[in-house]
Write a structure and sequence with these properties.
Blueprint (H helix, E strand, L loop, with lengths): L1 E8 L6 H14 L4 E6 L4 H10 L4 E3 L6 H12 L4 E5 L15 H8 L3 E6 L7 H10 L6 E9 L2 H13 L4 E6 L15 H21 L2 H7 L1 E2 L15 E5 L4 E3 L2 H6 L3 E5 L13 E4 L1 E2 L5 H6 L1 H12 L4 E3 L2 H5 L1
Parallel strand pairs: 1-4, 1-5, 2-3, 2-4, 5-6, 6-7, 9-11, 9-12, 12-14
Antiparallel strand pairs: 1-8, 10-13
Helix pairs in contact: 1-2, 1-7, 5-6
């Protein structure tokens, strides 16, 4: 038995990332091993998760993969953690086709409870109707409690607590309205300057969540039996795949790298002068090559090495920024 749950919200912009990062860092500060996950194909939030926990965040996507594969990913990565936290996407029921692929769909597929985040700005007792609808709309999605964001005062919070009581839903705390808790721009990249800003934000979110959210109550309310999750580990093939990873190329799904089922060596198109030796394949993923165009262009020996390898028949996968680089 271990705490495993989804953080979902009524809509985009409600503060899921603030709550998720704050909670992940607050738990990590307690020496609790947190395994982060993200609903859908998102590269940015997963990097924030890694900064908050020190562990790779894994995408759970019912559009691009089967239910079994999502369950296998969740089971395998959760196995070595004390707590598993999934950050939802958009509103809880917003999927690629109705509810399909939504945060709610992933929560019911994995049979994990949901912690519902409510944006309480400019509302008070009316949240009772919102919570009532979200907790009863889909009975096989188990909402275990709610947390409020952008709470203006203790008086404001009193109305919100009363709303929970009248509809018999567990209140797990709140996050105060705070201008310093504005999520960093998703277009910052991961330069040293932006990393310091992200660290500042994560620390501020952790401090806030630690003081106003009932973390112990949340963990107790979200215990599940993780043995139900399939966890398949395959033996590696005798192959070596080179994967580009540096400041310019950092949008990588861990599950895609795993899928090669090979020995992985990382290299930098920015800084290295040659490809790793004796490789059987190459992955050039996405990132921010446009921010490093000059440096990438000037690294002539690496450009020539990659060009020669691809023309020479080296199996290569390039996507997004990696494709632009080619």
């Amino acid at each position: 038995m271990k705490p495993s749950f989804m953080i979902a919200a009524t809509s985009s912009g409600s503060g899921k990332t603030t709550l998720s990062l704050g909670l992940m860092r607050a738990l990590t500060n307690r020496n609790i091993v947190v395994q982060p996950f993200k609903c859908g194909p998102d590269y940015i939030d997963t990097q924030y998760h890694r900064i908050s926990t020190g562990r790779d965040s894994v995408n759970l996507d019912l559009f691009m993969s089967s239910e079994r594969h999502v369950k296998e990913l969740f089971g395998r990565y959760s196995e070595s953690a004390d707590v598993s936290i999934i950050e939802g996407a958009m509103g809880m029921f917003d999927g690629f086709d109705g509810m399909n692929g939504s945060a709610a769909d992933i929560a019911r597929t994995l049979d994990v409870p949901v912690v519902l985040l409510i944006n309480a700005a400019s509302t008070s007792f009316s949240v009772a109707a919102t919570i009532y609808g979200f907790t009863r709309f889909c009975p096989d999605v188990k909402v275990t409690g709610v947390i409020f964001n952008r709470v203006a005062s203790e008086n404001h919070y009193a109305f919100l607590k009363e709303a929970c009581e009248i509809i018999n839903v567990v209140n797990l705390g709140y996050i105060r309205k705070n201008e310093s808790l504005q999520t960093p721009s998703r277009h910052l990249g991961l330069s040293l300057d932006s990393l310091s800003e992200i660290e500042r934000f994560v620390d501020a979110a952790a401090k806030e969540v630690g003081s106003t959210v009932d973390i112990n109550g949340l963990l107790e309310a979200t215990m599940i039996d993780c043995r139900q999750m399939p966890s398949v580990v395959q033996s590696k093939r005798n192959l070596t795949v080179a994967v580009a990873r540096d400041e310019a190329f950092n949008f990588i799904y861990p599950a895609n790298v795993e899928r090669f089922n090979a020995n992985i060596v990382y290299f930098s198109p920015l800084h290295d002068k040659a490809l790793p030796e004796n490789i059987h394949g190459m992955l050039l993923g996405g990132g921010y090559p446009e921010l490093y165009a000059g440096q990438l262009s000037e690294n002539n020996t690496m450009r020539k090495a990659i060009r020669a390898a691809v023309i020479g028949g080296l199996p290569t996968v390039a996507e997004c920024g990696g494709f632009l680089y080619l």
